[in-house]
Write a structure and sequence with these properties.
This protein is of the alpha+beta class. It has one domain. β4 and β5 form a beta hairpin. 18% of the residues are buried. The longest helix is centred in the first third of the chain and has 23 residues. The radius of gyration is 20 Å and the shape is globular.
């Protein structure tokens, strides 16, 4: 009888732990924010990046442990960026703020915001960030001022990147 109780307890723990891990794999933009894999290409690439830096596509992976990895492609050249990030839900609509502390290829800090929307089963992200350290005399966008508010709105929509989530 003791063995039967032990087996039932073990099975209960096993099944409940499987259920929890399956729930963690389901993406929820209101709690997970930017966590996941994203891609941007063609007209979704920010005008600033495509025009001045000839970027034609970007792949980004944001891990739940607050690390990120980005591949940027321009003129058949791949550049890899990596580092850590911190995200926080703002009090403005569904906009989140983000601070990226890049370590590769050079140490820089960028700040900005993003917003994730859902169309059917597809998640899209509007993303606007700017380098703040070392200073390039740019000011980051703010949720209160909305998208297009980099440098007080001087860049308009040129610094807005659009991503689509990669679903595995």
């Amino acid at each position: 009888m003791k063995k039967l109780i032990f087996i039932l307890v073990a099975l209960t723990i096993g099944f409940s732990s499987c259920d929890k891990s399956e729930e963690e794999d389901v993406y929820n933009p209101t709690t997970d924010g930017i966590t996941g894999e994203w891609q941007s290409s063609g007209s979704n690439v920010a005008v600033l990046l495509s025009t001045y830096f000839k970027v034609d596509s970007i792949y980004a992976r944001f891990e739940a442990n607050n690390t990120y990895y980005v591949e940027s492609y321009a003129l058949d050249t791949k550049t890899i960026y990596s580092g850590t990030y911190a995200q926080a839900k703002s009090t403005t609509g569904s906009i989140w703020t983000i601070v990226l502390n890049q370590s590769t290829p050079t140490a820089v800090t960028s700040e900005g915001m993003f917003e994730i929307t859902e169309t059917g089963t597809v998640y899209s992200m509007k993303y606007e960030v700017v380098q703040t350290t070392p200073s390039i005399s740019a000011t980051p966008p703010t949720p209160a001022a909305g998208f297009g508010s980099t440098n007080g709105g001087a860049l308009g929509t040129w610094n807005i990147q659009n991503f689509v989530q990669i679903v595995k």
